[in-house]
Amino acid sequence: MDFFNKLKDNPFYSRWFKAPYSYVTGAILLSLLQIAILATTGNPWGVSGAFANWGAWLFQLIGGSVDNWYYFSSPGAQATLEGGFLNNGASLLNLGIIFGALASSLLASQLKIKKIKSIRQIVAAVLGGLLMGYGARIAFGCNIGALYGGIVSLSFSGWVFAFFMFFGAVVGSKLLVKYFM
Amino acid sequence: MAKEVILDCMGEACPIPLVKAENSLKELEVGDVLVVQVDHSCAMKNVPEWARKEGHFVDIEEVDDGEWEIIIEKAK
Questions:
Q1: Picking from A16-25, B16-25, B27-36, which range would have the lowest pLDDT averaged per residue?
Q2: Which of B21, B26, B25 is nearest to B8 (CA)?
Q3: Using CB atoms within 10 A as the burial measure, which of A36, A139, B3, B17 is most buried?
Q4: Is residue B68 within a helix (H) or strand (E), and if so which, with residue range?
Q5: How do residues A105-146 score in pLDDT, each as one tens digit?
Q6: Is B9 annotated in the active site?
Q7: CB nearest A110 (choices: B12, B19, B66)
Q8: Are B52 and B24 in contact (CB under 8 A)?
Q9: For residue A6, what are the CA distances in angstroms to A14, A16, B65, B66?
Q10: Which ipTM did the prediction report?
Q11: What's the half-sphere exposure (Cβ side, CA atoms, 13 Å) at A166?
Q12: Which of A44, A70, A42, A43 has its CA nearest to residue A56?
């Protein structure tokens, strides 16, 4: 107990684990780590693509088949699905993000199970998730794979994505203020 | 007589606490205090940042694990 009380007042503990980092620090860390991902896996960092595979595996678990789906028809996509979860780097990365986020809030002693405030919150979360997931798949990437990965690969498509995402965010914010305030 | 207003933003994700804080502070007089209760760590960053940029006095208190009160005194 004494140890934890001392730890709480330790300036290094507060600076490294508790206080929020600046946006610049975050940007530099993200850039360095995504270089590590590109160097070790050979692919730029992506998040939402793996979720499509998670969906396919779940569907297969309950007896479904995605063999005839256009999205999974390429030999590459079939090989990924056959390789399974543990051979899919992007899936493991996503797992790492989830557990990393959990670890960081535990280390900061800020973990809290939040109450759902209203039905509206559930509706908005489900609708928003569906729209984002659908959009990310037909765009072949989300704000990580298409935007971040695109821009750091010096691809013009990343900037096009950024431009239209900005307008999407404006519309989204207007809807948020209109229906949630 | 300065008054103190409590704004309950528990369970609200960004940017709702920020927009709510902006709207409530508009209704207050100089010297009044707005206490924004949040449990979303990103609100603990962007609400004080906005209030300080606007020139108000800001204090953050961690009231429980993952719960904060952002105390804003309207300065102008």
A1: A16-25
A2: B21
A3: B17
A4: strand B67-73
A5: 999 988 888 888 888 889 988 998 999 999 999 988 899 999
A6: no
A7: B66
A8: no
A9: 11, 15, 17, 19
A10: 0.74
A11: 5
A12: A70
CB pairs under 8 A between A and B: 40
Let me know: does A20 contact B40? Beta carbons within 8 Å.
no
Residues of B in contact with A110 (CB under 8 A): 41, 65-66
Residue the block writes with tokens 């979303």: B40
Pairing between β-strand B33-38 and β-strand B4-8 as defined by DSSP bridges? parallel
Catalytic residue among B5, B14, B16, B35: B14
Q: pLDDT value at position A32?
A: 95
Residue whose C-alpha is closest to residue A165's, from A140, A143, A141, A138: A143
Q: Which positions ≥6 away from B54 have C-beta within 8 Å? A: B76
Which tokens hold the place of A36? 């590590």
Amino acid letter, A176: L
Spatial distance between the Cα atoms of A28 and A30, rounded to a whole number of angstroms? 5
Q: What is the pTM of this model?
A: 0.82
Tokens of A116: 């759902």
Give the nearest chain A residue to B63 (CA atoms): A110
Q: Which two tokens stand for residue A109?
A: 């002693």
B66 closest CA partner among A115, A1, A121, A26: A115
